[in-house]
Design brief:
1893 residues, mainly beta, ten-stranded mixed sheet, 27 helices, 118 strands, globular
């Protein structure tokens, strides 16, 4: 008995643990597996520990569970936290200062505990106010300063309005007094502008004072100053004004406002300007003001960053108000979003409205309140709620000044942080003082919060060597802690193995230890192989063997424990199939089963009745046409001898008798009251149907009213008279019309005299305004009713239009952004077809819908082909339009037409013209109805037919993510082109209010289809998380054609989502068809809908708030199978007859095929056809008809490939055993090897495999004859060798294969075995596992194009688990703590082959989190995420060049899946000023990074260049004497945008200018490649010396030469050729591509007839052979000139076959790279010297160069020069140039293989006075460096820059110039410094790399 005690204890403990897990959703106490009492209590709130020695359950568990398992309540150890309010001084509303209540609170928290506390705050009506004005003193603000000086009185009135206790101060700023921000010449340092002060960084001019007169007088003494660059150093000023509290004069009890006034952008940390000046240390956030108020360390430290400003201003309770002009409004509008509370006001150009701006901003600030929890330790999280308990968003606390506001603080201690217990954190992370305060307050509620980590006293008093522990351990808190080498709950066994251990692992009647399902460990404890499946002390119980109901284990309402169902609360039964409540048996009156049955297992068992019953025993009249209609004919014949059954014989067949009464019962007393008209006498008769009062009578009783209701005498004799009078009136009117010229006028005058017709007809909108909430919208359209008054005769057609965002004024920043007219947008188009709507058209997959969709597409494409740039229509669907007059049953067609934005007016005009004609090509439409929309406006028409008084206008709402929080649309009735109606109410306004949602709920699909055989429709509801937390949404089903309790059981309720939960499933039970349903021939399609509603906790409804569920009633297929699993014959039988039987649906024909397997002499197959009514057919095999002797054998027959209306049953195979022993007297003879106990067993019969999940297969078979000991299942992946198969040994004729790969084909064999050995194996049994959600995608790669543009790419998931159908990319701006700081953008890519995405218009210097996930048929997989800041530009893991057909996403666009996706081939043609970056250019991208030699020859480059600035560079020289030429010593790096919209990089190296396009080029050394990864690309220019006559002019309308030829190697023999569309005055019709071997051969030609196709892929090229390519374009005027290029793909080849590449060998393109940077040296006013270096990668011998020169802006001829030679540096002198005219130079290298890409440069020789700067310069910065040399030669260099957004230099890059004069020799030393900064958690790491050349 002693040795069984440990096992018994373990078993009881295991059982208790399992029971505990069954009923707890998340029992973290039990799950913690705490090894001590203290660790148990520290696991979380509610955990308790039982120290009772005799307790055998889990010691650490919830208090209720431990107590239920038998632990004494007195001994249970628990822990408690505490809370106390230490200081609570009531709010004094008479005190004019901000106050909070309480002031000091102490709280301790158990891990996971949550506390709430009510807080009161008070803001006085006019509390203390400190107003500090910080003003930009650059010269451009001179008029602003003058206006502010004159506003002293107004400023005084303003502050008195705001507060009775105020102070006001003033500070000024310009910028750092260093180069390049400030002109450092001595004269400019004294006075940068006339009558100005010297430049300075920041100065506190007037300390905060309440003396307004002093303030005004001091302000009048101030003078303006100045600097050079546009961005100012205001961030330095803001930080000093915040941290220098005493110098500025901030008061502790007042509200602090800082008004920041400027018209320029701002410098910020590491933006590049300070790098140029050598200022690298970060700002130390300390006060550095001199006694006179000036900032001292402006030269020693960098500007502060934006996060630094946000933190410092928040810590000092300062609220910024940015008063800025329109030039920089958008910058500060974005900056405002980073602050908890801030305002931006729009100043006029002279700041004359600054007082009003401050007044409006202060009013806005006081209307908002945001609560913050400052200094919060890491272990806590805080939420703030309204008094009603709703979580409040930012600024939602509505606290009015002068009143006490209340809110609720919810503080929670985490249980774990990153899977680490919170009690293990350092003390500074789990305790501290949290300051809870409104953002405008200085006072705060101080909460001393700490995590309480309890310890147990019993651990301090352990019992050493306790008898309970057999002397082998200490008893601590009731539990034995064993010494070394002792194990067990009572330390009574050792680790040493023994034979007794194995026997201890065998239970009674067991042959194997642990039932063969686990390992026997020390102390006789079984460790089960699969604990999730096997359990029990001997692993003897299988958790999958409990009873199932509806296919679900334990009905999914309980858990399988010890092979019995442990039902959840409220359920019972062997399979938990019976609810304990009778709620499902309640009838419509609230009774149980309508009193006509009893509730058994949650279902009503109804008494028998001839009337169909519902599931609650109520008469089902809906099913059988109602009680009235069902009894109508019998009532007629019995009561009145009329009707269809008036024949006496027919009437006797009625199943009931009627009762004639004088008065009918009241409706409440009967089931139904009936009334019908008797056709024989036109009289109405009435009767009622009700239950009999006698409970023994089951039939309904019918009572008929004796008296009929007949109409009065007939007035038919009046009809002829009325007809005669009508004809006479018509004749008179016809005469008047014929002979009275003024008839029409008279008629109209007469009609006008009538009171009802005095004003004629009027049309107009019914309502004036609609107010909608975006979260409640279920459609992107609004049906707006339009009404017509007056005479309803005649037809009126009304044209209407709608305009989006009418609330925005003309000067609104968004209104000033003009869209690109060439942008391709979606045009939703709606027309009314001349065809009645049918239900089939609503189902997209139906043949009717498919055919109509094709007809519509063909005809619309034919019509819209006349619109330039229009593409084919797409997404065509059909619907009905309610309230559409007499034609509302006609079909409305909706489609989408992609076309340029500029085509809107043409599309509307063309659509209207064709609609009015009634024909669109060959498509018939109904005139009077159409809609054409864009993304911001729409136009259309509606028709009032005769007699119609109201129709709906289907108005698009243009809902977009970038919409304002409150936007307005205006719908206008424009005119009446057809009809006489006048327009009355012309306008209707629609206002849409957008709430910012924390979550978005949506169905995954708008429709689902389930079969009744499924039993349950599992409908998934997804949640998109924007801000994580708890939320919920309501769901409810509603009948359509499917009826509740007949076709399905309705469901409704709330879905609660916890943090991180993204999807839940709602099960809807589908009901089987009743017998009468199955007899109906024309069964209606059964559908019901499920709606989402009432999202809570800040959530909203998404794309699909409703889904339609179709219940498919498929006819049951015929089932065909072999009659027996084995057949026995002998060698003397003349034939083998094998019967096949059929069941179910036997009245239809069906076929199945059969074939033999493993037969020695024949391989037979054939069809087996069952005629209607046939139940059995035979397969007859004649063994003598085949060669060879008939010998004993065993073979199989298989049934396969049944017809579409049939299926193969379980016995799809049969085994035929042929023996040579005659046994005529033995029936069912079994072969000797099977019958004999000493023979091998035959193969198991009827093996069948079925996938039960993504990783599981259930395999069953019939036992073979004999007595098998067990079975071996061999399984392997299809395609793998069978020798690699895994083998599973089982004892029963079934097996569960687990841990398989999802969506994978497996093959299996089964054999039985006995003492002889393994028997015969079955044939291969194939089975494929189900699909599963895909894994996370592979690595994310970023190719940074600019600080605001990146190309994101990713790899396919390693585990696709099915076919990938789509990818989803989400990118979200985040802060340093990885919390979202803006809305997430979402893009769905439906083409799974495109695993790249180009994202533009990101926020500059903003960190983003990028997440990518994949989708297959099961759903979405997990996200792969990465976080980068493009501005910091770390090294990238992979580079992929930009290629056509990669979608580009604008970060400013909406987040809908159907957002417009532009492609990179469109980017190549983007116009100047477009927000879309160009991707064309040169080849200085190597492996995804800028080539280091390109940035700095001989140096290193680690960042990409910005596309946001547009400088021009000029070269100027003074000539004094003829002392030769000197190269100027200024080196700059800038960026240029040229006229084509492509970003240029422009270098001035050694006095010259070098401009290159940007191209994404990859020359990878990777050995392998796929079609998706282009290995190499190169840009080609003109070919060799065969330049065309460049002076010749093309015929007007003939295309120019294609702009650029790009070759991209796809493999050793495959090449992609692409080009840019050439300029042409006419439309391009197509292209022609010619290519041939360079040494001659056949010319191959490819014609492209689609103008949009500007690329072609060439296959089957020869490796290492040069090809000549020519591309030309065609218009109506003819073919244009050709663009030529020569290219060679170099690759390793097979030595035996030189024309075949080696598999997997690398390949590269052969042409040379571009020459080195172009260097220009001015020789005279009209000549210069151009020099360049040899290409870095010549790829052969350089034969020479071709140089072209042309004026940049036209007006001159293109000149070309041939330069021969192969030297390292080549030069060319160019003469006859013109001063002050920019020229563009191009240089190409030439080898035997062809020409390489061009190097471009733009240069201007300025006149001596330098007055004629480039026309593109609007801001000029000039650096003059004069060197007095012995030869008296002066050199001057002017560098002009045009700046848009970025500062002077690209961020993170610095170049300085040092000049040394030694003995008349000018030595140039250029020092290049590259600075990399990466910001992590507020820490900056700076690396400096110096390169000297």
């Amino acid at each position: 008995m002693g040795r069984w005690m440990p096992l018994l204890s373990v078993a009881l403990g295991l059982l208790a643990a399992l029971l505990t897990c069954c009923y707890a959703e998340e029992n973290y106490c039990f799950a913690s597996r705490a090894k001590s009492c203290s660790k148990c209590l520290q696991s979380g709130i509610g955990c308790a520990y039982c120290p009772d020695e005799n307790f055998n359950g889990p010691r650490c568990d919830l208090y209720e569970n431990i107590k239920a398992h038998g632990c004494s309540a007195k001994t249970i150890i628990t822990a408690e936290s505490r809370m106390s309010i230490d200081r609570a001084q009531a709010i004094d509303m008479n005190l004019a200062q901000s106050q909070v209540y309480p002031q000091l609170v102490s709280m301790s928290f158990l891990p996971g505990e949550e506390r709430q506390m009510d807080v009161e705050v008070f803001a006085p009506t006019k509390g203390p106010l400190d107003l500090y004005i910080l003003m930009d003193f650059s010269n451009s603000m001179a008029d602003d300063l003058d206006n502010l000086k004159s506003m002293g009185g107004e400023l005084a009135r303003l502050v008195r309005e705001l507060s009775d206790d105020y102070t006001i101060g003033f500070g000024k700023f310009v910028d750092k007094v260093v180069e390049p921000q400030t002109d450092m010449r001595e004269t400019k340092l004294r006075q940068p502008w006339p009558n100005s002060d010297p430049p300075f960084s920041f100065q506190n001019v007037i300390t905060l004072t309440n003396n307004v007169s002093f303030f005004t007088s001091e302000l009048r003494e101030e003078k303006i100053s100045g600097n050079l660059d546009a961005p100012e150093g205001g961030f330095d000023a803001i930080l000093q004004a915040a941290v220098c509290k005493s110098q500025i004069g901030w008061r502790s009890e007042s509200t602090h406002l800082l008004v920041f006034s400027t018209e320029s952008a701002f410098h910020y940390e590491a933006d590049g300007a300070n790098v140029l000046s050598g200022i690298l240390p970060r700002n130390d956030e300390k006060c550095h003001l001199a006694p006179n108020g000036t900032y001292l360390l402006y030269k020693e430290q960098d500007y502060p960053s934006i996060p630094t400003l946000v933190r410092v201003l928040g810590a000092n309770n300062i609220i910024p108000i940015f008063a800025v002009t329109n030039h920089s409004y958008t910058y500060y509008q974005k900056l405002k979003e980073y602050f908890p509370i801030a305002e931006v006001g729009l100043l006029q150009e002279d700041s004359s409205n600054i007082i009003e701006v401050m007044r409006v901003a202060f009013a806005s600030i006081r209307s908002k309140m945001s609560i913050r929890a400052e200094d919060r330790p890491k272990a806590f999280e805080a939420q703030f709620l309204s008094t009603s308990g709703v979580v409040s968003e930012f600024g939602n606390f509505n606290v009015k000044p002068g009143e006490i506001g209340r809110f609720r603080m919810k503080l929670k201690a985490h249980r774990q942080i990153e899977d680490n217990p919170v009690c293990g954190l350092p003390s500074n992370e789990n305790e501290g003082t949290i300051r809870v305060k409104p953002s405008t307050f200085n006072n705060a509620v101080n909460v001393k919060a700490s995590v309480h980590c309890p310890t147990c006293e019993c651990e301090k008093t352990s019992i050493p060597n306790a008898p309970r522990c057999h002397g082998n351990g200490n008893l601590v808190c009731g539990k034995c802690q064993c010494r070394d080498d002792w194990l067990g709950a009572f330390c009574n066994c050792t680790k040493a193995p023994s034979d007794t251990v194995t026997s201890m692992c065998k239970g009674p009647g067991m042959d194997e230890p642990c039932s063969g399902r686990g390992d026997c460990q020390a102390c006789g404890i079984c460790a089960c192989y699969n604990p999730e499946q096997y359990e029990g002390p001997y692993c003897q119980y299988d958790r999958t063997q409990c009873q199932r109901y509806g296919g679900f284990l334990c009905n999914d309402r309980g858990s399988c424990i010890m092979e019995k169902c442990a039902c959840a609360d409220g359920w019972e039964g062997d399979a938990c199939e019976c609810p304990k409540s009778n709620q499902t048996c309640l009838d419509s009156k609230g009774g149980i089963c309508n009193g006509w049955g009893k509730c058994v297992c949650g279902r009503c068992e109804c008494q028998s009745s001839s009337l169909a019953m519902t599931s609650t025993c109520e008469p089902n009249f809906q099913f059988q046409l109602g009680a009235c209609e069902d009894r109508r004919q019998c009532v007629q014949c019995q009561a009145w001898k009329t009707g269809e059954k008036k024949d006496e014989e027919e009437c006797k067949k009625c199943p009931f008798k009627i009762t004639m009464v004088d008065e009918l019962r009241k409706p409440k007393e009967v089931i139904d009251s009936c009334s019908f008209r008797d056709e024989d006498d036109d009289c109405t008769y009435q009767y009622t149907v009700h239950h009999s009062n006698d409970p023994n009578v089951k039939e309904m009783e019918v009572e008929v009213l004796k008296k009929k209701d007949c109409p009065a005498a007939s007035l038919l004799w009046l009809l002829p008279l009325l007809l005669f009078l009508l004809l006479l009136l018509a004749l008179l009117l016809l005469c008047c019309w014929k002979y009275c010229a003024c008839c029409k006028t008279c008629c109209q005058s007469c009609l006008a005299l009538l009171p009802c017709c005095k004003r004629g007809r009027m049309v107009g909108f019914k309502e004036d305004e609609y107010l909608l909430r975006q979260s409640l919208l279920t459609s992107d359209h609004l049906d707006t009713p339009m009404v017509r008054t007056g005479p309803p005769k005649g037809t009126d057609v009304v044209r209407w239009k709608v305009t989006d965002n009418v609330h925005r004024g003309a000067n609104h920043p968004q209104a000033l952004i003009k869209p690109n007219p060439k942008e391709l947008i979606q045009y939703p188009v709606s027309l009314r077809l001349n065809r009645k709507f049918s239900e089939n058209l609503s189902r997209r997959e139906s043949k009717d819908a498919e055919q109509l969709r094709k007809d519509v597409g063909d005809n619309l494409n034919e019509m819209y082909k006349h619109i330039p740039g229009a593409q084919k229509v797409q997404n065509t669907s059909f619907r009905m339009q309610r309230n559409a007059g007499k034609r509302q049953d006609y079909t409305i067609m909706d489609t989408v037409l992609p076309a340029p934005r500029s085509s809107y007016a043409d599309i509307v005009k063309l659509t209207e013209k064709n609609v009015q004609s009634g024909n669109i090509h060959n498509l018939k439409v109904v005139p009077g109805y159409y809609t054409v929309a864009t993304d911001r406006e729409a136009a259309g028409a509606v028709e009032f037919q005769e007699g119609v008084e109201s129709v709906d206008v289907h108005v698009p709402l243009f809902v977009k993510d970038e919409d304002d929080d409150k936007k307005k649309l205006q719908v206008e009735a424009v005119d009446v082109p057809l009809g006489i109606a006048e327009i009355g109410k012309r306008f209707v306004n629609i206002t849409i209010i957008k709430e910012h949602a924390s979550s978005i709920f949506s169905f995954l699909q708008p429709a689902y289809t389930y079969s009744r055989q499924d039993g349950v429709a599992n409908i998934p509801i997804s949640r998109e998380i924007i801000e994580d937390g708890r939320t919920q949404v309501m769901y409810r089903t509603r009948d359509l054609t499917a009826k509740d309790k007949k076709d399905y059981l309705t469901v409704e309720g709330d879905l609660n989502y916890g943090p991180g939960e993204t999807q839940k499933t709602v099960p809807v039970r589908l009901l089987e068809l009743t017998e009468k349903d199955g007899l109906l021939e024309d069964k209606q399609v059964k559908q019901f809908v499920m709606d989402l509603s009432n999202p809570r906790q800040g959530a909203k409804l998404g794309r699909y708030p409703r889904t339609t569920v179709t219940i498919a009633d498929q006819p049951e297929p015929s089932v065909m199978m072999f009659k027996k699993s084995t057949q026995s014959f002998n060698t003397s039988d003349p034939t083998y007859t094998i019967p096949v039987v059929r069941t179910r649906s036997t009245d239809i024909p069906a076929t199945v095929k059969w074939r033999t397997q493993k037969a020695k002499r024949f391989n037979l197959s054939g069809p087996l056809k069952f005629n209607p009514g046939e139940l059995e057919k035979d397969i007859v095999i004649d063994p003598s008809a085949h060669p060879g002797p008939i010998q004993p054998e065993s073979f199989q027959l298989e049934l396969f490939d049944p017809s579409s209306n049939a299926s193969v049953g379980e016995r799809n195979t049969t085994t035929v055993n042929v023996t040579n022993v005659m046994a005529p007297t033995q029936i069912g003879y079994v072969s000797q090897k099977a019958a004999s106990p000493g023979a091998f067993l035959p193969e198991p019969g009827n093996p069948k495999a079925r996938a039960t999940g993504p990783r599981d297969i259930h395999l069953t078979w019939d036992p073979p004859p004999g007595n098998p000991t067990g079975y071996k299942v061999k399984y392997w992946i299809y395609g793998d060798p069978e020798n690699d198969a895994q083998v599973l040994d089982v004892k029963s004729p079934q097996a569960e294969l687990t841990e398989l790969y999802p969506c994978c084909d497996y093959e299996m064999r089964v054999c039985a075995y006995n003492i002889v050995g393994d028997g015969y194996e079955t044939d291969i049994i194939p089975c494929k596992t189900m699909e599963d959600a895909p894994g996370e995608p592979g690595r994310l790669a970023f190719n940074v194009i600019s600080p605001t543009v990146t190309q994101l790419s990713w790899a396919e998931p390693a585990e696709t688990n099915g076919n990938i159908t789509a990818y989803e990319v989400i990118y979200t701006p985040t802060d340093d703590e990885m919390k979202p700081v803006g809305a997430a953008k979402k893009v769905k890519i439906d083409n799974p082959k495109k695993r790249m995405l180009l994202i533009e218009n990101l926020q500059n210097a903003q960190t983003y989190q990028y997440k990518v996930r994949a989708k297959n048929s099961v759903g979405w997989g997990p996200f792969r995420d990465a976080t980068i800041n493009l501005a910091s530009q770390p090294a990238r893991p992979l580079s992929i060049p930009i290629i056509p057909d990669i979608p580009i996403v604008d970060a400013e666009a909406g987040d809908e899946y159907d957002s417009y996706l532009m492609y990179s081939n469109e980017v190549l043609k983007s116009p100047t000023g477009s927000k879309t970056p160009s991707v064309s250019g040169d080849d200085y991208m190597m492996n995804g990074k800028w080539d280091q030699n390109f940035l700095f020859p001989g140096g290193s480059g680690t960042r990409n260049l910005s596309t946001s600035s547009s400088p021009m560079s000029t070269l100027s020289s003074n000539y004094r004497g003829a002392g030769g030429s000197f190269v100027t010593d200024t080196t700059t790096t800038t960026y240029l945008s040229h006229a084509a919209g492509s970003p240029y990089r422009q270098d001035m190296v050694r006095g010259g200018t070098h401009t290159t396009d940007v191209i994404m080029r990859k020359r990878s050394e990777n050995r392998g490649y796929t079609d998706e990864n282009i290995r190499d690309s190169i840009v080609m220019g003109e070919l060799s010396s065969k330049f065309p006559d460049l002076d010749a002019r093309l015929t007007p309308g003939v295309p120019d030469t294609p702009n650029r030829l790009v070759f991209s190697a796809l493999g050793p023999t495959a090449l992609k050729v692409s080009w840019q569309e050439p300029h042409c005055e006419r439309d391009i019709l197509g292209y022609c591509v010619l290519y041939q071997l360079l040494n001659g051969g056949e010319v191959k030609k490819i014609n492209l007839t689609t103008p949009a196709e500007n690329s072609v892929i060439i296959q089957d090229l020869l490796p290492n052979h040069s090809y000549l390519f020519k591309v030309k374009a065609q218009s109506q005027e003819g073919w244009g000139p050709e663009r030529e290029g020569v290219i060679t793909i170099e690759s390793a080849v097979d030595p035996k076959s030189p024309l075949s590449p080696m598999p997997g060998s690398p390949f590269t393109l052969s042409t040379p790279s571009a020459p080195g940077p172009l260097v220009f040296t001015a020789l005279s006013p009209d000549s210069l010297q151009l020099s360049w270096e040899k290409p870095r990668k010549p790829n052969g011998d350089i034969l020479g160069y071709v140089v072209t020169c042309e004026p940049l802006h036209g007006g001159g001829d293109l000149r070309s020069f041939q330069v021969n030679g192969d030297s390292s540096e080549t030069s060319l002198t160019v003469q006859n140039l013109t001063e002050n005219v920019p020229y563009k130079f191009k240089v190409q290298a030439r080898t035997t293989q062809g020409f390489g890409p061009e190097r471009e440069g733009i240069i201007t020789i300025e006149s001596q006075d330098g007055s004629a700067l480039s026309q593109y310069s609007n801001q000029s910065m000039t650096r003059r460096e004069v060197f007095h040399l012995p030869t008296e030669v002066n050199t001057r260099t002017n560098v002009s820059h045009t700046m848009v957004n970025d500062p002077y230099f690209s961020e993170g890059m610095m170049m300085t110039t040092q000049h040394t004069e030694t003995s008349g020799v000018l030595t140039r030393q250029v020092t290049k410094e590259v600075v990399q900064r990466s910001v992590m958690g507020g820490t900056t790491v700076t690396k400096k790399l110096f390169y000297d050349s």
